[in-house]
Amino acid sequence: MRTPIFLAILLTACAAPQKLMPEPASTTFSPDAFSAHVNFLASDLLEGREAGTRGYDLAASYVATQFELLGLRPAGDNDSYFQSVPMRASWREADTVRMTVIQGSAERDLRFKKDYLISGTVLQPLSSVEGETVFVGFGITAANRNHNDYDGLDVRGKIVVMLSGFPKGWPSEEGAYYSSGTVKYKTAEKNGAIAVLSVYTESLEKRVPWARMTRNANSMRLSWVEKDGTPHTSAPTIKIGGLMSPEASAVLFEGAARSYEDIREEAIDGAPKGFELATTLVLTAGNRYEDRKSANIAGVVVGTDPKLRDEYVVISGHLDHLGIGSSVNGDSIYNGALDNAAGIAAMLEAARALRADPPRRSVMFLAVTAEEKGLLGAEYFALNPTVPIDSIVANVNLDMPILTYDFTNLIGFGATHSSLETTMRVTLKNMGLGLAADPFPDEAIFVRSDHYRFVQQGVPSIMLATGTDSTKGKGKGLEIITDFLGNHYHQPSDDLSRDINYNAGARFAEVNYRLLKTIANADEAPTWNDGDFFGEKFSR
Questions:
Q1: Mean per-residue pLDDT, 385-414
Q2: CATH assignment at residue 462
Q3: What are the Cα distances from residue 366, in Å, to 31, 173, 180, 382?
Q4: Does position 468 have pLDDT exceeding 50, yes or no?
């Protein structure tokens, strides 16, 4: 606990607006400076930095103050560092949530959180549907793979039941695109469905047990709001969506041609075909709404080249975390020290260094809100950018570097999709570091963090993470990462009690600084690789 730093920042953030004197920029990377950022952003004072709360707003003021101290040009709204993001907050009204299973003349009510989780649309306070059910395999239509789970099925006005994930053997990141909730719900909507229920696969159960899925089921959900006041939703005619527990999933398949156990077993190595189920469902879910605002924070180091300074390399990282939630071992504050106070610290230190030695292109530093609610702040920025979207030539994202060991290589999620892989390899080699392959291909991390919103706008993107090896040996870093993911990820224990290696933090910041500088100084902007799936799907 560093009380003097906290006091100084509070006085700065809470004082009346004033012009701050820029501090001297430097290309020196200090573990103490990195530590100061993390210790403030992950303190209990900020209450877990949940988007749309006081704690997040205080964190946003801190980042904006740092940008001003460094002399970055404001890149938010109205010549400020803040891009206001209008939000609609919603909470499930538990006493309105119902699921009734009808088979012939028999009716059965399932139990909320015990058997299922469902949510209504953000477009109305109470959603209710009744319909026959149809199993639609993985719920995917992928023309490039000659795969259509809806082929031969009539789901108009019906409730579709689908396996989570995607078929085994598909490239993980391509599969993650098709298996994302956004794409699956759009596909269901296109085929005429009115509600979507997902059922567990063996793979999902191993990764996310039902007990963890339901732990914070009543927490606040957010949607950003369109200019006409309508909450943004990708599939507006899907009235209810949800997930069944592994045990309750079997109920939906009772009396059908095949059992849940059969299709779950087939899904381990195959892709079960769809069929009509013998159940009708009545689903109801109510929400309590509240309008809120949160903010992205943006500042720019202006490029030096008159011909290139109007092009931007964006470095992003999410400032929010999970706020206050269910208590675990007596602790209910989800501080997010590594996820993602550490990433924001690396961003601030990279900004300090680039301000001292600006590159040819401009570099935007973007701390985004509501990543934990579905990449919302990044999505809002990508669709409402404060600079022309076509002027953004690359995105480097920072999310949850595991800084508890001396890493000797790094992971570049998404590197294989564009020329950024070559740039990164050169950068790492010059620092005596290696490039590790993605150790978690099934997790499809490339589509799960803020850089993906830039990818969807055709921007070549990459996310750096600490690697699999450490100074203590090959694979030692992976052991540490795996332990963190299993025991501390999205838990209150991701706090300042972790043995954070601030020397590693300073080195991680330097890697990102050097990568940004190389991209921003290059004669040519990054390009998608020929034939790349994401490049072809989203290329502008």
A1: 97
A2: 3.40.630.10
A3: 22, 25, 25, 11
A4: yes
Q: Which residues touch 166 (CB under 8 Å, ≥6 apart)?
A: 138, 140, 175, 176, 178, 179
Q: Nearest to residue 72, comparing CAs of 395, 386, 358?
A: 358
Q: How far apart are alpha carbons 352 and 517 in whole angstroms?
A: 12
Structure tokens of 331? Answer: 């602790």
Residue pair 223/175 in contact by the 8 Å Cβ criterion: no
Task: Give the separation between CA 68 and CA 49, rounded to whole angstroms.
Answer: 21
Q: Which of 226, 216, 217, 240 is nearest to 87 (CA)?
A: 226
In this structure, what is the dihedral angle of CA atoms 365, 367, 371, 377, given to the nearest 10 degrees? -80
Give me the CATH number covering residue 166: 3.50.30.30
Cβ burial of 360 (10 Å; 0-12, 13-18, 19+) is middle
Phi first, then psi, for residue 261 (nearest 5°) are -60, -40
Q: What is each CA distance from 361 to 301, 322, 357, 464, 521, in whole angstroms? A: 9, 35, 12, 21, 6
CB-CB contact of 81 with 295 (8 Å): no
For β-strands 275-301 and 73-74, DSSP reports them as: antiparallel
Same domain, 272 and 307: no
- Enter the pTM of the model: 0.91
Q: Give the separation between CA 335 and CA 425, rounded to whole angstroms.
A: 33
Give the pLDDT confidence of 50-77 residue by residue, as tens digits. 999 999 999 999 999 999 999 999 999 9
Domain range enclosing 338: 65-71+302-538
Residue partners of 59: CB distance under 8 A and separation at least 6: 41, 46, 49, 319, 320
Residue 361 lies in a domain: yes
- Please classify residue 104 by burial: count the beta carbons closer than 10 Å to its beta carbon, then call 0-12 exposed, 13-18 middle and 19+ buried: exposed
Query: Which of 259, 289, 319 corresponds to the end of one domain?
Result: 289
User: For residues 45 and 520, is the Cβ–Cβ distance under 8 A?
Assistant: no
The total number of residues shown for the chain amounts to 540
What CA–CA distance (Å, rounded) separates 155 from 134?
A: 7
